[in-house]
Amino acid sequence: MKYNFDKPTDRRNTNSLKWNVNENELPMWVADMDFETLPEVKAAVMKTAELGIYGYSDIPDDFFREIAEFWQRRYGFHIDTSSMVYSSGIVAAISSMVRKLTTPAENVLIQAPVYNIFYNSILNNGRNVLSSDLVYKDGEYSIDFADLEEKMKNPQTSLMILCNPHNPVGKIWDRETLRKIGHLAHKHSVTVISDEIHFSFTAPGKKYVPFASVDDICVDISVTCISASKCFNLAGLQSACIVAKNPTLRHRVYRGINTDEVGEPNIFSMNANIAAFRHGDEWIDELNEYIFANKRFACDYIRDNIPSIKAPFSEATYLLWADISALSDDSVAFCKDLREKTGLYISDGTEYGACAKSFVRINLATQRSNVERGMKLLKEYVDKYCR
């Protein structure tokens, strides 16, 4: 490999949210990678830092152009740069769109178990969470389209937040599935926000399908959220791109983002994004090889050594979604005790919805040595305390 993802990183005492833990603890929770970003991004940040003046920044044309060229190059999807709006983050943009595209007490539809911050963006803004829960059977998740349509039919349902690819279950939605979602949304006048922040994390040989690429209906009724923050480990630079081809919808999104003052960039994020999308293809490809080798190792280890936990291999995200129902129906207590007894810090499933109370989420975007240690700690805990 050209890039060394085994290179150890010491993030303790750096104000890292993930690594602000006790010395004996191994954090494998929040979706934050332990890999240095690609050299071209580091060089761009260092060059910017050398200016010594960090004033207000414009959004350069190259920011939008490099994103558009990246999606065309890797996914065959043409995005007109005129359809793009800058935001300081996807969460900030989603919260803004919930406020702008709905009214208080309306329903925002999700598919639990799903990214926990969606709940915050809905509830904190006085809207109702309405979930069409994913169906879990034999280690696989699917959509109950009859239930989905029933909830879209509700006249109080005006918005859906789609997770594509899906966090935490690691699902790549295929084109036909996305088409069904889009056409049901159109039929019932529901706008779709497609959060595609995990777009790059797919198993070698696999690609995700952008929701807006499916057909004219899907692009017309949707807003797509994309960012370099997960893909290139730039979350701390806080930047995102919101795409809406429909001009009326785009104007409302733009007005919301600017009214909420989450549309002003910083000079570091601009130059880092441009470098990442311009130079990052090979880095992403090698990163995926490494991450999905980690995921394969973890899945195989659990199958062979902790059979009471079910953790099937998934084709998207660097997150492992594991079923602990044979051990506990209270993942909060399980994760708390696991951390106290072994130092392994993972996420409890209830964060992602009530239907996931017997699941846990494990972040595998770290050095293989950490993954191996994490699996051993999990085995030790199960062997000693779950008998």
Q: How is this structure best described in words?
A:
The chain is an alpha/beta fold and 387 residues long. The protein has 2 domains: 26-30 and 281-385, Aspartate Aminotransferase, domain 1, CATH 3.90.1150.10; 43-279, Type I PLP-dependent aspartate aminotransferase-like (Major domain) (Aspartate Aminotransferase, domain 2, 3-Layer(aba) Sandwich), CATH 3.40.640.10. The protein has helices at residues 39-49, 61-75, 90-101, 117-123, 145-153, 175-187, 216-220, 247-259, 267-279, 281-305, 331-342, 368-385, and strands at residues 26-27, 84-87, 107-110, 128-131, 135-137, 140-142, 157-163, 191-195, 222-226, 240-243, 319-323, 344-345, 347-348, 359-363. The strands form 4 sheets. A 7-stranded mixed beta sheet has the order 2-10-9-8-7-3-4, with helices on both faces. It has a 3-stranded antiparallel beta sheet with strand order 11-14-13. It has a two-stranded parallel ribbon with strand order 1-12. Helix 6 links the parallel strand 7 (157-163) and strand 8. Helix 5 (145-153) packs parallel to helix 6 and helix 10 packs parallel to helix 12 (368-385). The model has no long low-confidence stretch (mean pLDDT 97).
Q: Any idea what the radius of gyration is?
A: 21 Å
SSE order, as H and E? EHHEHEHEEEHEHEHEEHHHEHEEEH
User: What fraction, in percent, of the residue positions are helical?
Assistant: 25-40%
List the domain count as a whole number: 2
Describe what is shown at a glance.
With 387 residues, the protein is an alpha/beta fold. It folds into 2 domains: 26-30 and 281-385, Aspartate Aminotransferase, domain 1 (Alpha-Beta Complex), CATH 3.90.1150.10; 43-279, Type I PLP-dependent aspartate aminotransferase-like (Major domain) (Aspartate Aminotransferase, domain 2, 3-Layer(aba) Sandwich), CATH 3.40.640. Helix content is 40%, strand content 14%.
